[in-house]
Amino acid sequence: MNPSASPTFHVRDIPVYGDTILAPMDGYSDWPFRSLCRGFGSAMSYTEFVHVEKILSRSKQPQAKLYYEEAERPVVFQIYGDDPDLILKAALKVQELGPDIIDINMGCPSKSIAHRGAGVGLMKTPLKIADIFKKLSATLKVPVTGKIRLGWDTCRSYKLVARIVEENGGSLIAIHGRTKEQSYSGLADWDAVAEVKSLVKIPVIGSGYIRARAEIFEDEVHPSATQRFLFAQRERGRVNRYAAFGAAEGNICHCAFPRHPHRQGAHRVHGL
Question: In whole numbers, what is the pLDDT of the chain averaged over residues?
């Protein structure tokens, strides 16, 4: 990041320098992979998502998934669950670890998660989403954001959910332009992403099958959809995409090799 540069956008009071961001991916967006992508220009670091019940238990899983380094900031902890009170308790607990932002996953299409009411399953219960964001935004010190999909084939609730997130204190919405049933196949609906952008005043990040910069500005992606993008499934082994996108704007970031976890500056997660 160029220290003299102006922020591209803000998540409430958190400045973000850049418009291409590595999406949270379970099993992939761990500290080493995030650090490589950050070095090439990914503007924020989303952790892998963590179940709120794991955070509130004696499980050691959150310790690995929420590990980060100072150089990654802004750091976003992504959590998921279906109980507003447990989500609040878990968010308060992980807030003590120093993230810049806490994100609620409302987009995971996995049957084991969505069919239990979490992930994209939350998009069928908009009143619960309102309760979650109202509780978190009133209680937490850090901004609260949400990652959503279009909804389900039979319940495309993305416009309603986007308004609910904003009206209940959410500071950013990331939207994947596919439904639960599409999972990660087929083309994303970037017209729907544009609809969300037109409905809310908070920042909107779009994602869904972006392969090249030309697709954003010339071809498949709606030209008014958004100016901020998440890259996910196709990023495995392609960490230089951020530099390629930044190069067109004259903003190439060079990769700095991650430091060893035990050295100064590393944030080890204790007490989870």
Answer: 82
pTM value > 0.85: no
Asked about 37 being catalytic, the answer comes back as no
Among left, alpha and beta (phi > 0; psi -120 to 50; other), residue 70 is alpha
Q: Which one from 37, 108, 155, 255 is the annotated catalytic residue?
A: 108
d(CA 87, CA 52): 6
- Tokens coding 29: 């967006």
Model pLDDT for residues 128-162, shown as the tens digit of each residue: 999 999 999 999 999 999 999 999 999 999 999 99
**Nearest CA among 187, 168, 172 for reference residue 76:** 172
Residue ranges in 171-251 assigned as alpha helix (H):
190-199, 213-217, 241-247
How many CB atoms are located within 10 Å of the residue 8 CB? 17
Are 153 and 181 contacting, i.e. CB atoms less than 8 angstroms apart? yes
Domains and CATH numbers, the chain: 20-267 (3.20.20.70)
Q: Which residues of 85-95 are buried (b: 16+ CB within 10 A; e: fewer)?
A: ebbbebbebbb
Give one word for 27, left, alpha or beta, with left for phi > 0 and alpha for psi -120 to 50.
left
* Cα-to-chain-centroid distance, residue 80: 12
